[in-house]
Amino acid sequence: MKKTLISLFAFINISLSAQGNNYAQDYTKYPNLALTPPMGWNSWNKFACNVDENMIKEMADAMVSSGMKDAGYTYINIDDCWHGDRDENGFIHPDKTRFPSGIKALSDYIHSKGLKLGIYSDAGSQTCGGRPGSRGYEFQDALTYAKWGIDYVKYDWCNTEGLKAEGAYKTFTAALKKAGRPIVLSICEWGDNKPWEWGENVGHLWRTSGDIFNCFDCVEDHGTWKSWGVMQILDKQEDLRKYAGPGHWNDPDMLEVGNGALTKGEDRAHFSMWAMLAAPLIAGNDLRSMDAETKTVLTNKDVIAINQDKLGVQALKYKDESEFEIWFKPLENGDWAIAFLNRDKAGKDFTFDWKSNKFTDDEVSKKTFDTNIQNYKVVDLWSKKEIGNTKKTLKATVPSKDILMLRLVKIK
């Protein structure tokens, strides 16, 4: 009898081991995606709920014709309000009036342009715009998105009563994994639950603040919540750089470049600082009607190269002199990017002695900056001019609410 029981238990163990646990979930994101910060366009900042398939197609066309695709932009992301109803089996369908051809046809069009399509949903019962959320339908929605050929999902956090963020986002990333299509997951819970502490294995990027507001230095108070200007969001990035890296990025929200409220200097400063932060570069303007200056900002390949640097290190704030800040970002090949940001209402004249400003980035990269050991060529990334080397003290002027952004290129 004893031998029989032992044999029976051995058979059960072997059977369970061979079968595996079919109910186990994989709560980790798809690997090897977003190894540099995602670049693309999103509909919300300019159009909010006013989205339809013709407009999305036109944005894709403009991304190609404007040179943005050549500059590295990849994603065309539809934000809120594309949704129609769920069918009798719970599967979501697009709004038939706005997207009469369906999302799959739109996806095919976007892919034919050499671009990728992103879509939006919400962890709650409804999206922020009152459309059907994914709560309770996570696996169905993930299957649907995979079937449509979606490449990127922005997953919001409205109407999530009783949910815990980490668990909700793990459920959705498990659903995406089960659906079988590699999809970038953008965690959009506004930084309320410190996603940088748990998001690295769950999503590819996570919001670090509430929504951006089309203003350089101000706050828009909605009563129960606030929108933040560019500088306010920049300030919220303090102490977060250690969490960012290839495949997992801090996201200070989408760009307001070209939306009209910022001056061209402010547009430059905004774009430059997002590049320094290794932030996703998701444009939010009307690509069809960009003026030349906006296009110049968004397609500056030298600045984009700083953002897309494969080392993937977020910049550190080296000095903060009230309204004048100096930021350093180590780069893959031993170069450095430096931003002199003037937040003041007046221009700033300054000198910077390279030799006396040496330091080691102990927190993240472990790289040492010391021009007593290594000399660098100094290149202005906006004027695209070489302005000397680090053996000579830098003397420059930064206009009000503008930036001087440099690349220091190693001299061998």
General shape: globular
Number of helices: 11
Largest sheet report: 8 strands, parallel
Please give the domain count: 2
Whole-angstrom Rg: 24 Å
The CATH H-level homologous superfamily of the largest domain: Aldolase class I
Average pLDDT for all residues:
94
User: Could you tell me how far the N terminus lies from the C terminus, measured between alpha carbons in angstroms?
Assistant: 80 Å
CATH architecture of the largest domain: Alpha-Beta Barrel
Strand proportion? 15-25%
What is the class of the largest domain in the CATH system?
Answer: Alpha Beta
Total number of strands:
22
Sheet with the most strands: spatial strand order: 11-8-7-6-5-2-1-12
Class inferred from helices and paired strands: alpha/beta
User: Would you identify the regions where 5 or more consecutive residues have pLDDT less than 50?
Assistant: 1-19
Tell me roughly what share of residues is in helical segments.
Answer: 25-40%
What is the fold-level CATH name, i.e. the topology of the largest domain?
TIM Barrel
Task: Characterize the structure shown.
The protein is an alpha/beta fold and 412 residues long. It has 2 domains: 39-85 and 95-307, TIM Barrel, CATH 3.20.20; 316-410, Golgi alpha-mannosidase II (Immunoglobulin-like, Sandwich). The chain has 11 helices and 22 strands. It has helices at residues 2-19, 44-47, 53-65, 68-71, 103-112, 138-148, 165-179, 230-235, 264-276, 292-298, 301-307, and strands at residues 39-42, 75-77, 83-86, 92-94, 116-122, 152-156, 184-187, 205-207, 219-221, 226-228, 249-251, 281-283, 316-321, 324-330, 336-342, 348-352, 359-360, 368-369, 376-380, 385-389, 394-398, 402-410. The strands form 6 sheets. The chain has an 8-stranded parallel β-sheet. Helix 6 packs across helix 7 and helix 9 (264-276) packs parallel to helix 10 (292-298). The chain is globular. Mean pLDDT is 94; it is low at 1-19.
